[in-house]
Amino acid sequence: MGYLGLMGPRARTLKMLQELQEAGLKTSEDLLRKIHNPVGLDIGAENPEQIALSILAEIQAVIAGRPGGLLREKKGPIHAPTH
Fold it and tell me: Which of these, 7, 14, 74, 81, has the minimum number of CB atoms within 10 Å of its CB?
């Protein structure tokens, strides 16, 4: 799985997942740990456009295996060497 995220509060997500399990959805603890909730990076997003940017940034970071931190705080090169 590349990325699975749910918008909204953690409590609502936990309730929804519990209801799905009670309805017969088969899940594992490993799968539940992989769900990103709430979604997005903490960039101070307030409006829909900013929230979308926050979510897309998190998806990109997860797919690329990166933490999503500030580049200025990264030690060494910011890009992988090309061959």
Answer: 81
